[in-house]
Amino acid sequence: MKNSKKASVLLFLGMMIFTPFVNAQWTGPKRKPDSLRTIQYGPITPAHRTDPQMEAFRSYGLGQFIHWGLYAIPGNEWNGVSARGGAAASEWIRAWGGPTAPKDWKNIYDNLYKQFNPKDFDAKRWAKQAKDMGARYVIFTTKHHDGFALWPTKYSDYNIAKTPYKKDIVKQVVDAYTAEGIDVYLYFSVLEWNNPDYMGGTPKTADEKKRFDRFLQYTRNQLLELVTNYPQIKGLWFDGTWDASWKSAYDFTYKLEKELRDKHPGLIIGSRFRNDEFGARHFDSNGRLLGDYEQGWERKMPGSYEWLDGNDWDCVMTIPPNGWGYMKDWSGIYTKTTDDLLDMLMRCRSMNGNFVINFGPDGNGHMRPEEDRIAAETGAWVRRNAAAVYESRHSGFPASNYGYFTQKDSTLYLTVFNRPVNNILRISVPKNFKQVPVSALLLETGGRLDVKPADMGLDLDKNTYYDILLPSSFQSSRAFVIRMELGAPAKKAGKLMDAKM
Ligand code: FHN
Fold this sequence. Notes:
EC number: 3.2.1.51
Order of helices and strands: HHEEEHHEHEHEHHEEEHEHHEEEEEEE
Shape: globular
Strand content: 15-25%
Distance between the termini: 55 Å
Function: Alpha-L-fucosidase is responsible for hydrolyzing the alpha-1,6-linked fucose joined to the reducing-end N-acetylglucosamine of the carbohydrate moieties of glycoproteins.
Bound molecules: ligand FHN
Number of strands: 17
Protein name: alpha-L-fucosidase
CATH superfamily of the largest domain: Glycosidases
CATH class of the largest domain: Alpha Beta
Radius of gyration: 26 Å
Organism: Niabella pedocola
Number of domains: 2
Keywords: Glycosidase, Hydrolase, Signal
Largest sheet: 8 strands, parallel
């Protein structure tokens, strides 16, 4: 065989072996499968549910994530030595390795529960803060990868009841947030680092199968326990479901998803829970969403609305670059500002997504001062601009470099992050649009703004333009929202002669 032919055969074989049957992509438009397969373990719920729970999800707009657990005690360091560079993130500190890791570290970590006594924890204070921030849902870590349960589970001794604190933290969070009218989603990590029955690889030997079966039953028990103990919850937020062991349990996870949904009608589960029989996660091998919404937008966002194929989604975001749990030391790293987060919030809303800001309380139950400030500033902004945030949706108006469009019926909102130096916001309107901006005002102040047609008559231009004039006396140190009413254009622009070249 000639060398070039040999190379292409090898390449083809390589692709056969290594191309996964996975359509999940979080950095570009979705790959569509070339051909459809017969799938037994595909989606359980219909695409684009229209029940009240899912409709509420679409109007959450802003959410809060809370990562809290034993990792809040070390706060990413131990005896003054930082875990930076040795652990993937502060809540991953149990996996600290390399030269900086303390001697016998895993054992030290696994005994931290004996000190867990968050004396200042007050779920009502957290819930009030979230409410003031404008969050309409919260995702709370009941159990992270370390396996420690913040509720008194009957199925493991590694839980809150065995700490000096003793009281059920999950219950306090569920009750307090529900009382504030904030929907609660319980974060649950399937993978557990210190559970002898858990394994990353596919169980192969009889002993491994027995152990992993026991782990599956334990997981099922805990999940049923959560939906039974906390019936007010609206959803389960899964994590740690990427290992081969869990992927091989597709028959079990399919049945479990059904069981959870039967037990808790209306329950919302994202795309991270389970895979199909070919190992495809988030989307089955035919490209259908596995779950009620896309749950892979973690610290990243779609580049355009079209990438989403009309799916519901949320984006979960840390304030530091990474690190979801408490980190004592934020020095030397960029931490997102309120303006960064508001920009991301409105970018998500312009594409119909919810934006979820993560908080990592310390071992005593305090949010850090920077988080307090971000919550207060975000809340103040969202209150002034609520109409553009919650009930409004993606707009068909062409994307603008000034900021982000959202729309509700014939009201168009433009959240301006980049104010033009000449104070003229030029809105592009495709010539085939039946509705154009006819009036405008500043949402914060209600002050009217002049709207002027600005058809420049450029040859081959498919748009026409409307200028919104900002008074130079209007000053704002943050993004601001222009509210425009849409209506029929005053008169149709006459056809100009095309340039001849
Ligand atoms: O490994 C975790 C990480 O610690 C954190 O909990 C985030 C939150 O979305 N999820 C995992 C990684 O995807």
